[in-house]
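Input record (one chain):
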Amino acid sequence: MNKKYIHLFFLGLIILLAIIYRIISSIGLLHKADAIVIGMMAEDIFNGVEYPLLYYGQFYMGALEAWLLAPIYFFFEPDWWTISFIPIFISTIAVIPFYLLGKSISDKAGGIIAAGLWAISPFAINFYNITPRGCYPEVVLAGALLLWYSTEKIKGKEISLNTSFIVWFFGGLSLWASMLAAPFLATSGLLTMIYSRRRFITSSNLAAICGLIIGGSPFLIVLYKNGFVSLGQQSVENLSEKVQALFLTAKWLFVPYPDMAPGLVLTYGGWFYFLFTVCSLSILIVVAIIMLFRGRTGEFLPLAIFSILFVVLFVINSEATKLQTRYLLPLTVPLFVSAGWLISLLIKKSKIVGLSLAFICLFSSMAGNSLIFNKIKEGNTAQKDYLIKTIEQAKLASVKSLVWGSEYENSYKLLYEARRQGILLNLMPWDGTRVYSVNNSIEADPHTAVWVPVSLPEVVAGFQSCCNGGYETTKIGGRVAVRNIKVIRWPSTSIGPEKWVVHDAKPGINDRKFTTTHHSNKSFIVQLNSPQPVTMIRAIYGRRQPQSISILVSTDGKNWSTVSPKAPASLMVPYGPKVFFRTLPVWEREYQEWNFKPRMAKYIKFEIQHPSKYEYDIHELFIYAYNGAPPFGEGADIRNEDHPSCSMVKKVVDRMDVSLLAANRWHTAKLYNDPKRSFKLALPSLRGFREGSITSSKLRTGTGFAALVDSSDVHELKGWLGKHGSQFNTIALGAVTLVSIETKMDIWFTGFTVIDY
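The corresponding structure, as predicted from the sequence alone:
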C-alpha cells in the first residue's frame, strides 16, 4: 500500500471498528426514559402528530435527534434498537473531525490516535453515543469541526466556501440541539475574527455566517417564541464545591461507576486513562500559553481557549454539583485530541512507550465497556419479561390509560413496549408525561386507572376522602391498581365566606383572593353562622401542603365526629366526572376536595399534623352545603351529575364569541384535541404542554373571556362579581355553568370557579 494513503486506510478501519463497537453495545439495550421520549417524538413527527422544535415538556434542548430519526421509520419499525440509529451514526461520523483536528495540531499519527480514542471510548462516553438524549454526539461532532476550522485559520490555511458553510451549518444545528455547543462557537468565532484581521469580510467568512444562520434558524425561532434558553442559573457561590464536582464528574467519564465496576484492574485502567488525558490537556494548555507569551500563537490555542472557557462556564453553573457526566461530554474533544498529540510525540521518541499508552487506554475502554454493558443487559432481560407480563395484565384488566405510581423510568418503558407490541396502553408517571399525545389521551379517558406503589399507601386514603369509596382495585405489575374511579357527590351549594369565620387562621383563607395566604403549622376551626348540612370542602394549597389532615364536624363545638380520617394531602383532584392526579410540581394550581355524606355542622375542625419548624400554605377554603331534598343524612340523594358534552360546550362558546376559555381539566382535555376549535384554552393543570400554550392560572378577563364554572359555585360567584361591578353573562349547562366576564380584571381560575388575584 502507498504510504501516502496508509493513514486513510487506518481511518477507514477505525470508522468500521466504531460502527461495530457501537452496534454490539446497543443490541439488547432497553433505553432510559429520556431516550424513549426522543423515539416517541420521532414517531409523532413521522405520523404528522407534532412538529416540535424543543424536547417535549421543557423550554430548552432542541428536537434535532427526533427530526433525524423520523425518516428512519420509512424503512424500519420503531423498536428498542432503531432508537439508537442516529446517535450511532452521528458519533461514528464524528471520528472524521477528531482525525482532522488531531492531524491539524499534531500530525497524521496524532489524528489517527485521537480518532481511535473517540471511536473506542469508555463506557460512560459510549453510552451517550448509542442512546439518544437529544444533543451530545451532535455537539461533539460540530465542536470538533469548529475547533479544526479555527486551528486551520490560525495556521493561515485557505478554507473553501463549501467547507466554511458546512462547518458553521453544523455549528448552528448543534446550538439548536444544546447550549453546550456555545463554548465551541464562541471559541471558533472569536479566533476567526481575530486572525481574519482586516480581511474579515471575505467570501469564506460570509459563507460561514450564512451556514450559522441557516443551521441555527430553529434556535432563533425558539428564542423568538420562548425567550432566552439556558443551561441553568449562573452563580459564583460555592466555587470550591463546584471545582470538586468538576473533577468527580470528569472522573466518571473514564472510571467505572462503583455499582458497575467489574474489577480493580479495570478501575485502575480507568483512573490511568482519566489522569493521562487530563495531564495531556494540561501540558497542551501550558505550551499554548508559553507560545502566546513568546509572540507565537500556534495551533494549540483553540483547544486551550475552549477548555478554559468550558471549565469556567461549568463551575459557575448552579447545575455543576449534580455530577452529571453528560454535561462534560464536550470536553472529550480536547481530552482525546491532546492525548493523541502527546502519544504521537512519545511514539517519535519510543514506539513501545507511545503504543503501550494507546493500548492501555483502548483496552481499558473496550474491557470496561463490554463487561458493564453485559451486566446492564442481564438486568434488561428480566426487566423486559416484567414489562411484557405487566402489559398483558393491564390488557386483561381492560385498562387502556394508566397513571404509573412514582416510577419515571418504568412508566416510559412500559409505554414504549406496549406501542412496540401494537397494544393500546396510554401510560404516564405520577407527575405527568412529556409526550403530548399520551397526556391528552389520559386526560380525556374517563376510565384512567392508577398504579399504586408500595411507598404510597396513602393513595387509597386519598381516594376514600375525595371519591367516598367510588373505585375498584386489581393487580397489575405485582401491585395494586385502582380503576373505575368515580366521585360520589351530593347536590350542594357553596356557603359564602360572609356566612362563616375561621378561628386560629389568617383572614386571607376565605377572602376569595389568591394572593392572600394562610401560613401555619397548626390546626384551625371554621364556625358557620348557623348549622348547615355540610357535604363537600375544597382547599387550594400553596407550594407547601400539610403533612396530613383529618376533618371533624360538630354542632356544639364540644362533641366531634370524623367525616374524613387522617390522611396526607391528597394526590387526587376531582374535575367534572373524573378523578385526575396531580401533575405539576407547583401544586398551587390545583386543589384538594373532600366529599362525604351530608352532616349537620356548625363547627368544622381541620386537624392538621405538620412539622412544627415548617409551615403549610392554604390560599383559599370553600365549604358546601347539601341542597337536595330531605332527609339529608343516610337517605340523601347522590348527585347524578349532568356534565355537558364537549360538542355542546363548544357550540355555546362559539355562540358567545369567546376567544379564551378557562375550563376544568375534564372539558379542557376533550376540547384541546378538537381540530375545529376556534378559541384558545387556558391549560393551568396540564403537565404535557405545547409551545405557546397558556399555562398560568392567572388570567385577564374582558371581552372574549369566559370560564366554565361548577354550578355549585355560581350563586356565590355572581355575588362576588356584582360586588366588583363586573359585567357578566351566564348560561347553565347542567353540572357546569359558562360565565363570560366582560370587565377587565386579573383573576385566578381555581379549576372550578373564579377568584380575585
